[in-house]
Write a structure and sequence with these properties.
- The chain is an alpha/beta fold and about 220 residues long.
- It has helices at about 10-25, 30-40, 70-80, 95-105, 115-130, 165-170; strands at about 60, 65, 85-90, 110-115, 135, 150-155, 170-180, 185-195, 200-205.
- It has a single domain (about 10-205), classed as Rossmann fold.
- The protein has a seven-stranded mixed sheet with strand order 5-4-3-6-7-8-9. A two-stranded antiparallel sheet has the order 1-2.
- Helix 1 runs antiparallel to helix 2 (about 30-40).
- Bound molecules: S-adenosyl-L-homocysteine.
- S-adenosyl-L-homocysteine binds near residues 67 and 97.
Length: about 220
């Protein structure tokens, strides 16, 4: 499907309002807000649904998956405390929107998606937008051992628990952000690994994600 990469004044205006909404909801990291104001979220929508792109809502992207709510993207991005040049692993590429936000913030992003059509679409649009995100087709439960360790890891699907390989692939001093829960609702958690490899887990409220699926095929 051809992607229309046109960013009008109207879209820029709607985006400014969306960022204002997110700021009012409590996001304060200037780099997160700047990236969200920069990235045209409507690029990740099919042309018939573009009018929904600047509402603070999740939206279906096909294959039973969703692009996360902008507030959730901002919340996870803020928890990551990205520094320019950080190597970041994302599990659950989906539309590629979250990956583009992290890339705009200066991260070197590696992202894994287990649904082929979504993987292919994200792999096409991110370079077109000028973001050299490395997109992989596979099971994010296993992480990317060949590219580890990572300064930061973000999981954008609800996980029943924190996958051990992801903890292993986190650098000392690193942060893993992951929504954890077995049902419809998850608790956002950060896992921080100190320089001695000790981990500390902190809770950050409830969210609703599509489930992280294990590759059984
Ligand atoms: N970050 C995305 C939101 C994606 S929704 C965005 O910005 O649009 C969660 C995604 O995780 C879905 O695309 C789903 O297919 C994917 N997913 C679920 N289980 C997975 C797994 N084990 N490995 C990799 N991706 C997975």
């Amino acid at each position: 499907m051809p992607v229309n990469l046109e960013d009008s004044f109207r879209h820029k205006g709607l985006r400014k309002q969306l960022v204002e909404t997110i700021r009012r909801k409590g996001i304060s990291d200037p780099e997160v807000l700047r990236a969200m104001e920069t990235i045209p979220r409507h690029f990740f929508f099919d042309s018939s649904f573009i009018s929904f792109a600047y509402e603070d809502q999740p939206f279906p992207i096909g294959e039973g998956q969703t692009i996360s709510q902008p507030y959730t993207v901002a919340f996870q991005s803020e928890l990551l405390r990205i520094k320019k040049g950080d190597k970041v692993l994302e599990v659950g590429t989906g539309s590629g929107y979250q990956a583009s936000i992290l890339a705009e913030m200066g991260a070197k992003v590696f992202s894994i998606e287990r649904i082929k059509p979504l993987y292919l679409k994200a792999k096409e649009i991110l370079p077109k937008m000028g973001y050299p995100v490395k997109v992989f087709y596979g099971d994010g439960y296993k992480g990317l051992p060949g590219f580890a360790p990572f300064h930061r890891i973000i999981v954008t699907a609800g996980a029943p628990d924190i996958p051990e390989p992801l903890i292993e692939q986190l650098k000392p001093g690193g942060i893993l952000v992951i929504p954890v829960g077995k049902g419809d609702i998850q608790i956002m958690k950060t896992l921080e690994k100190d320089d001695n490899g000790q981990v500390r887990i902190t809770d950050h409220g409830t969210f609703r994600f599509v489930p992280l699926l294990e590759n059984r095929s």
